[in-house]
Design goal:
69% of the residues lie in helices and 0% in strands. With 194 residues, the chain is mainly alpha-helical. The N and C termini lie far apart (45 Å).
Length: 194
C-alpha cells in the first residue's frame, strides 16, 4: 500500500523539514494561480495572491487535520485570501481570457474556423461564469475545472454535501440560462453550435 505524498510532505514539514513544503507548492501552484486569476483577471495579482495563499498554508499547517485531503484545505485558504483581496480592492475585478492559443493541428480553413469557434465559446462561457454569484461560480469551478468530488467541493467551501450539490446544480442552471441569453445575440459559426 503506497502512502499519500501530500501527507508525507506535511508530516516532514511538521517535523521541521520546511523544504518539504516545496513539493506541495509545485503540485498545486497552477491550480491556485488559476483560481486567483479567475477571481482577479490580473496576472500580477494572481501571482501575489497565490504566494500569499502558500505562505498562509505554511503558517497554518499545524492546524491541518491529518488524514484529510490537502487540496480542499489549501483551496479554502486560497478562496479566503482572494475574497479578502476583492473586498479591499473592488477595482481588481476584471474578466480576461486573453491567453488562449489554438493548437497548431492543421492548416485548413475548417480547423481554424473550429478553433476560433471554440475560442469564442470559451470566451462566452468565461464571461457567463463571471456573471454568476460567487458562491455558485466557486462550486462550479471546483467541481468541473478542478475536478473535485462533491465531497471535496463541500469540504473546500465549508458547507454540507447537500449544500455543495445544491450550489453546483443551481449554478449550472443559472449558467445555462446565461449562455442561452448570450447566444441569442450571437451570429455566425458559434451561434449554430449546440
Amino acid at each position: 500500500m503506497s502512502s499519500d505524498p501530500d501527507q508525507e510532505a506535511i508530516a516532514s514539514v511538521l517535523e521541521g523539514d520546511a523544504d518539504a513544503f516545496e513539493m506541495l507548492v509545485e503540485r498545486y501552484q497552477k491550480s491556485i494561480y488559476n483560481m486567483m486569476y479567475r477571481m482577479t483577471g490580473c496576472r500580477q495579482s494572481a501571482m501575489d495572491l497565490s504566494q500569499d495563499t502558500f505562505i498562509k498554508a505554511f503558517e497554518q499547517l499545524h492546524r491541518f487535520r491529518r488524514g484529510c485531503r490537502f487540496f480542499p484545505w489549501l483551496y479554502t485558504i486560497g478562496m479566503n485570501v482572494g475574497r479578502n483581496f476583492l473586498r479591499r480592492d473592488k477595482s481588481s475585478r476584471q474578466v480576461s481570457i486573453e491567453d488562449w492559443e489554438p493548437s497548431s493541428g492543421g492548416d485548413g480553413f475548417q480547423e481554424r474556423e473550429e478553433a476560433l469557434c471554440a475560442y469564442l465559446d470559451l470566451g462566452r462561457l468565461e464571461a457567463c461564469l463571471m456573471r454568476l454569484p460567487p458562491d455558485y461560480r466557486e462550486a462550479i469551478i471546483l467541481r468541473y475545472r478542478e475536478e473535485l468530488s462533491l465531497e471535496d467541493v463541500a469540504a473546500a467551501l465549508q458547507i454540507s454535501l447537500s449544500g455543495a450539490k445544491m450550489r453546483v446544480h443551481r449554478g449550472l442552471k443559472k449558467l445555462r440560462v446565461l449562455m442561452v441569453e448570450g447566444s441569442q445575440g450571437d451570429h455566425g459559426c458559434c451561434a449554430s453550435r449546440s
